[in-house]
Amino acid sequence: MSTERPFQAMTFASESSVPPTRRTFIATTTAVGGAAVVGGLVAGPPALAAETPPGSSISLTVNGVRRTVTVDNRTSLLDLLREHLDLTGSKKGCNAGACGACTVLVDGRRVNSCLTLAVRLEGAEVTTIEGLEKGDRLHPLQQAFIDQDAFQCGFCTPGQIVSGVGCIQEGHTGSPEEIREWMSGNLCRCGCYVKIERAVEQAAGRK
Fold first, then answer.
1. Can you give the pTM of this predicted structure?
2. What is residue 31's three-state secondary structure?
3. Would you place residue 13 in the very low, low, confident or very high pLDDT band (cuts 50, 70, 90)?
């Protein structure tokens, strides 16, 4: 029976007669993801050049101003507004369409801008919280939020106001219950729901 150690039959790059350790044996005999042994060290495969993500040029009207921008095709409307157009009124809350902090109007309809791809809005008309004020005059719902003290921390307020404007335009203000139902997609962590409902009623002319 041979008394030779099992590792001694291996030939290593250094041609050393010293038996390898477990670490050098594994490094020598294992290739991970195309790695190669160079001088006893594991060298990875050559780095691939980063590919430029696909982009598109889009033109849309934001708060009455025509804008043409080139963006990554994965860019959300929210990121387009905040990162490219410097319109930071629309807030990034959950970034999953669950809180309503990013609500804007697209062609008069309420949308969660965090879930809306910017490249799908070619030719669209977008209204954000910054576009509601007319000169120095607040929108009636903005004024109603002040009158009714319908906010505390204010983080959700832009989305609440834009959603409330959409709710009024859609005609969903027939009763407090109807307002609550059609505003239910906008969360207020401070719990100002009663005052928000009253503000929408005031702006709709029901108070």
1. 0.75
2. coil
3. very low
| 3-state DSSP assignment of residue 41 | strand
CA 53 vs. chain centroid, Å, equals 17
Length, in residues, of the chain = 207
pLDDT in tens, 56-104: 999 999 999 999 999 999 999 999 999 999 999 999 999 999 999 999 9
23-38 residue pLDDT tens: 666 666 554 445 555 5
**E-state strands within the chain:** 36-38, 41-43, 55-62, 65-72, 103-106, 109-112, 125-127
Asked if 156 and 101 touch (Cβ cutoff 8 Å), the reply is yes
* Separation CA 75–CA 72 (nearest Å): 5
d(CA 203, CA 167): 11
Residue type, 126: V
Q: What Å distances lie between residue 98 and 113, 127, 152, 182, CA to CA?
A: 11, 20, 20, 14
Contact 151, 145 (CB under 8 A): yes
| Phi–psi pair at 60, nearest 5 degrees | -150, 160
Classify strands 55-62 and 125-127 as parallel, antiparallel or unpaired: parallel
* Residue 98 CB partners (closer than 8 Å, separation 6+): 187
Q: What pLDDT is recorded for position 54?
A: 86
Tokens 């929210």 belong to residue: 78
